[in-house]
Structure formats: C-alpha cells, structure tokens
C-alpha cells in the first residue's frame, strides 16, 4: 500500500492548527542524558490544553468537515486522550461530540472529557470492545467517525510534532516514539524521513500489547491484559498506519511493565514532569535497552500527562519501596519494658524515619514472652537499610526485611 500522507500535507496541517494548538517545547535533559548515556531531548506534549498530542490530529480532522457533517456531529472511541482532544476542539468549533470509552478508563479522563461538553458512553474493557457500540451509534445517528489513528487527517496532524522536533533539534539522529494504533509514529516518521532520510525511527510498545510488531511480521496477535500504559494498549493497529510503520520505522522495542512504571517515577523525580504510562514509554525503552541508544542524539515524545492521581501516588510509593527508600522491617523482641524504645532509638540514631509501627503479640506464632515489631521506615537508600540491619545485629536483636526491596538485588 502506498504511504497515504506526505510531508507537504503535514506542513499544511501545521498551518491549520497554528494558534489553536500549543507549539510545545523540545527541551534537552542533561540529567536523563547522563543517566542513559545519550544526548536526550524531550518533546513535551503534556503542555497541550488537554495534556496530550491527540489534539493535533483531532483538530485537523474536525476542520476538514463540511457543514452537514458538523451539524450531524462526530463520534470517537478512545481510552481518554483522543477523547479529550476531540471533545475540546469540537466544543470550540460548535460541533456536537459523542465519545465511546472503555469502562476501565481512569475516572480523571472520563470526567475531563465530560467537562468539555461531550456525551460520554462507557462500553467494554478495551477500544476493540468499544467498536461495536461506536458502529451502532454511527448507523443510528449518522455521526461522523473521528478515528483515533487510522485516518489520513489524524496522521497529518500528529506528523506536525516531527516538524517541530527537527526544527528545534536539527541534529537529532534517533526518534523514540510510543506506538498504540500507530498514528503518532506514522505522522512523525513521514515528516522526519522527508527532512532527514538517515534518521532512525524507533517505536515503543509495552510487552503485553505488541500488536504493531506482530502485525508487521504476520504473527498471531497476543495483546491483552492490564497495563499502566493504557494509552498504547491497542489490540488492532491501523491499516494505514501499518503500511507507514512497515515502510519507515527502523525498529520497535518491547518494554516490560516494570520499565513503564519506573519511567513515570523517573520523570517526576528527575525532571519534575508528570507523565502517564504511555507518555513515558520512550523513557521506558531507554531504561530497558540503553545500549541501543548509547552515544546517540535522541528525541522522544512525552505524549501524555493524564494519569489518575491515585495511580500516580501508588507508582511513587512503589518506587520508594523498589529503591530501598521505604522498607518494612520485622524485629523480634522480648515483651518487656524498654525494648520498644530501644528499637525506636536504633532507627532514629541511624537516620531512619519511622512511618508506621505494628506491635504484634497476640495473633502471631511467637512465644508468649516475645513479640514481633513491624516498622515501616523511610530510608535514604539500600546501603542505609543495611546499616540499620547491621546495628540491630550488633545489639543482638533479630531484624529482617518484609516484602519486596532492592536490597542486595533480591526479592524478600
């Protein structure tokens, strides 16, 4: 299949969205560059009105509708970011919008979509499950479909990101782009390869949703399950986007779920930047396979920042545990006066901060004159935890870690 979009049509899309969509910054990250051994620039699409790149393609599509199509209204199926982009710009243009979303979509994305005035219909667990309901509404109400990725106007709009990256960082030699249905990487690849045919385009998919990679190689689809990167949890890549990716994308990296989670944590701690799982996928690829990008001039798109606050809090706390900065200790003590104070003093003198304490003497399988003291402790790092454990050992108090930690690289 011939590539359906060219760089001139992407430049035309750039003129369409000018002034209505934020021209987001592309910033170098010295900290992450040192961490991953490359020269890294971040394209901050989290700075859009709806905190996602999806506005670009949505606006190009909506602008191209005729009077009758605008009157009938549009419909989109989306896990959240495309929904918000369509709803926001449809409201600006006075076009009625209906959005079909999976029932598993984070509450924050549902409410933000509704806040833009769209009618939200929740159906199924994935975008594929939403398709039947979307087709029913199109047939009954004659609504115009705004597809999240398999549409030339959508691809054109997303491609404007490629123009902006290479204008800001012309010596970029590698673009690291998340892949869901493929609209983002298709548009960027078309624009970037037209400007610099030697540029390397690398896609990123989460291991549980390798749909584009499998489609490229004719493999049996296996996508499914839950993921923090729900924005790229797409089972069926587009027909148009598959053609573009097959022709222009040099490589696709599959990243494990733990890398996505770690990437969200790193962006907050090192860049003070909030990103959703899909938005952090490029950073996850650098975490998972840094050798593929060592010494290169890399740019990645932080493509969305719409993460549920509860999930974000959980990611950050889990990160503290994983890094050994928040641990649970169980100390076996004799049930007599002063021992609890000794435990607290040891932790305090070694620089630990007690967050919670559980004194178990009735319901544990311990001798009647003993007790288990479980303490959640805030620490500096894994070495600090070892220091605390060693101090207990010196005093003849038996202490051990509970749960999962980075101490000694073991799961305990």
How is the secondary structure organized here?
Blueprint: H1 7-17, E1 26-28, H2 30-36, E2 39-44, H3 54-63, H4 67-72, E3 74-77, H5 81-93, E4 97-101, H6 107-115, E5 119-122, H7 127-141, E6 144-145, H8 152-168, E7 174-178, H9 183-195, E8 200-206, H10 211-216, H11 239-248, E9 251-255, H12 257-271, H13 281-288, E10 297-302, H14 309-322, E11 326-334, H15 339-349, E12 353-360, E13 370-378, H16 382-394, E14 398-402
Parallel strand pairs: 2-10, 3-4, 3-6, 4-5, 7-8, 7-10, 8-9
Antiparallel strand pairs: 1-2, 11-13, 11-14, 12-13
Helix pairs in contact: 1-8, 3-5, 3-8, 5-6, 8-9, 9-11, 12-13, 12-14
Q: How does this structure look, described?
A:
It is elongated, with a radius of gyration of 25 Å. The protein folds into three domains: 7-53 and 163-306, Rossmann fold, CATH 3.40.50; 54-145, Rossmann fold (3-Layer(aba) Sandwich), CATH 3.40.50.1100; 323-409, Alpha-Beta Plaits. It is built from 16 helices and 14 strands. The chain is α/β, with parallel strands linked by helices and 412 residues long. The model is unreliable at 408-412 (pLDDT under 50).
